[in-house]
Specification:
Structural class: alpha/beta
Number of helices: 5
CATH topology: Rossmann fold
Radius of gyration: 14 Å
Strand order of the largest sheet: 2-1-3-4
Shape: globular
Strand content: 5-15%
CATH architecture: 3-Layer(aba) Sandwich
Order of helices and strands: EHEHHEHEH
Number of strands: 4
Helix content: 25-40%
CATH superfamily: Response regulator
Length: 158
């Protein structure tokens, strides 16, 4: 979709950890690299609709100069597959669920975030929700690598 403004939806399970981090870090990186792009995030499930991100995700974001406090959980919709140019899953299980949900008339490209990182294709971003606080740092690092590479890739196709 050359010359179309990129619009990227990041999707994880509940939309309170990985995907809001990816959305915010992507926005910051797109601004830094001067890429005019839209970003949003959603979850496969409806467990956290309307909720703010996990406090541990907010803390790691703030530590790295990114604010995700205004994000609110939402569930992915069929319309998202046409509204966005790219629907990016944070792990393989989420990607499989997105493939099942994807309507026949969908126009968005599907992929994994780390597919944009050379040597990390096919890898998922670890879900830190049930782990210790240091897992959020690992998740942030993976999200930062993936979003930076994705912004570069999208910039090259414009």
């Amino acid at each position: 979709m050359p010359n179309q403004k990129p619009a990227v939806l990041f999707v994880c399970l509940g939309n309170i950890c990985r995907s809001p981090l990816a959305e915010a870090v992507f926005r910051a990186e797109a601004a830094r690299q001067k890429l005019d792009a839209e970003a949003d995030s959603a979850g496969i499930g409806n467990w956290h609709v309307g909720e703010a991100p996990d406090p541990r995700a907010q803390a790691v974001a703030k530590k790295h100069g990114v604010d995700i406090g205004g994000c609110r959980g939402r569930q992915v919709t069929h319309e998202d597959f046409s509204r966005f140019t790219h629907v990016i899953a944070l792990d393989r299980d989420v990607l499989a669920a997105l493939r099942r949900l994807r309507p026949a008339n969908a126009t968005a490209q599907l992929g994994l975030l780390l597919d944009a990182v050379p040597g990390r294709e096919g890898e998922g971003v670890t879900d830190p929700y049930y782990g210790e606080d240091d897992g959020f740092e690992t998740t942030f690092s993976d999200v930062a690598s993936g979003t930076s590479a994705l912004v570069r890739k999208l910039s090259e196709t414009r």
